[in-house]
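Hey Z.,

So I finally got round to the pyridoxal-5'-phosphate thing we talked about over coffee. Here's the setup:
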Amino acid sequence: MRVPLLDLSEQYRNLAEPIRRELDEILHTQNFILGSKVEEFERALVEYCGIKHAIGVSSGTDALLDIFMALGFGPNDTVITSAYTFFATAGCLARVGARPAFIDIDPATFNISPDAIARFLGTCSRNGKGELADPAGRVVRAIVPVHLFGLCCEMDAINQLAQEYHLTVIEDAAQAIGAEYPSNDGTPRQAGTMSACGALSFYPSKNLGAAGDAGAIISDDDELAARFRTFRQHGMEPRYFHHVVGGNFRLDAFQAAVLKVKLPHLDDWSAARRQVADIYREKFEAAGLTSTLTLPAEPYRESGLTNHHIYHQYVIRAPRRDPLQEHLAGRGIGTAIYYPLGLHEQKCFDYLGYRSGDLPETERAARETLALPMYPELTSEMQQAVVDAIAEFYRL
Ligand SMILES: Cc1ncc(COP(=O)(O)O)c(C=O)c1O
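And the result:
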């Protein structure tokens, strides 16, 4: 049985009619950029996230870039982030001239380790102006935690460090829309809403996927939100008057319309993904594979929160990962490696001076992790085929 890593066709079949109606309406009006469809989607997102502002942008990458530009990060600034994430998080920091300070991950969750952040902050000191400076003398401005694979980072610990050191926190929630975190203050909090602002991605493969590139910035801060809007459109306010240099980060009406149709289904899809994860666990247990493989951790499962994990990806650790992946490919089973190299070891970041061995948990994850097929429509039979093929590999 062939089991693709991801198959979006059934989701589209179920929603084809309302999506086509929306797109047709846009074609009739010929209003393709921003406008009422984008505003409607932004309002729906505000409601879904329980936040004051949502700003639709052209991608998750552009959400991050807009945020970093609007916050004025630049040369002489250092920003703390995870070494184990999609490239955009650090790429956008580098594009504004800031230096990413790569931090190791918690091996259980793959998310940035608050203890490792604390260790890095311990190497920093106050400069003559009272600012926090890294060992090279750059000003440490912010922490960008990434809620990887649909699981929130330990935000209480991160926010506490940020408060102590007067740092801004920006959540990269590209993979985590709707994921919840059991905050110490007793209120469940959603990914992207626990800091100054959050970046969301609607890349088609995301839990909420557009029909092309799209993203959003969410924030409770009126002043920041206004800045993000201005930066979205070349720093223009009012029309053709530019006080700052922004970019073209506009969301288009087609994407907003597709997202607006899909958003009401998001929680059901995320629940179905959790069900898929439960079924994987049962089947791996039944196959006697749970001491060979490390299945995804669910640290917030007992919190009582519904979206304690939204399983954007289902990522296991597997011995002899590369031959296993090859074996699965031979059986028609799609897998992926997120990510094969820590960001600190990427060629383009040679200039930062990291060496192999600097971030051991990131490097181990890059060698051991494998993402298995994960989407709401995956059937139990397909999951059985995945588990059987893995069991066969370890028996050989
Ligand atoms: C953690 C993370 N950050 C940022 C992005 C960038 O989003 P986009 O692909 O929409 O530009 C992604 C997308 O995969 C991501 O996974």
